[in-house]
Amino acid sequence: MELIARPREINFLNRHKNHHIIKVISGVRRCGKSCLMQSISEELSHS
Questions:
Q1: Does 42 map to a domain?
Q2: Cα angle 11, 32, 5; round to 5
Q3: How far, in Å, CA of 20 to CA of 16, rounded?
Q4: Within a domain: 27
Q5: C-alpha R_g of the chain
Q6: What per-residue confidence (pLDDT) applies to 23?
Q7: Total structural domains in the chain?
Q8: Could you report the per-residue pLDDT of 15-36, keeping only the tens digit for each?
Q9: What residues make up the domain containing 39?
Q10: Per residue in 11-25, is it b (16+ CB within 10 Å) or e — as a string?
Q11: Domain assignment of residue 2, yes or no
């Protein structure tokens, strides 16, 4: 399955990753929350 690129959401989370507040990713079922976290995880592992 191909992931949908979500550059706006990824950029937002990357900009705020060092702020010491909790980030909540919410949405309806099957809207891509887990895939977004996979994308973030892959990006962090390549850094």
A1: yes
A2: 45
A3: 9
A4: yes
A5: 11
A6: 92
A7: 1
A8: 998 999 999 999 999 999 999 9
A9: 7-46
A10: eebeeeeeeeeeeee
A11: no
